[in-house]
């Protein structure tokens, strides 16, 4: 999917969440930012999809499919989806997916433990 070049508006707050300024990842038309709930002080990962950057109509039509599928999944290797939001700042609409925040150390430990379990359970 293509992203147009003139689309990277900045946000500092989304609903009850304040962006920390730490980017966790990015793609053609979305980025993932670390944020903190202002009342609960709980970290989340927010996938910010810039809808105006998506040039293909079929991609725009199917944007809401991902959160519907994510909401049904319960697996330790998939960060849980907490909620979705839509905001319309001056630079165009954004779709937000708020996920459980998992820091790198927890991912490395989890993968190390579960890789060993898989080797024991399913020998080659």
Automatic annotation (TrEMBL):
Residues 18-124 form the Protein kinase domain. Coiled coil: none annotated. InterPro entries: Kinase-like_dom_sf, Prot_kinase_dom, Protein_kinase_ATP_BS. Keywords: ATP-binding, Nucleotide-binding. One of its GO terms (molecular function) is protein serine/threonine kinase activity. Gene3D superfamilies: Phosphorylase Kinase, domain 1 (3.30.200.20). ATP binds at residue 47. GO terms for biological process: intracellular signal transduction. It comes from Plutella xylostella. One of its GO terms (cellular component) is cytoplasm. This is (diamondback moth) hypothetical protein.
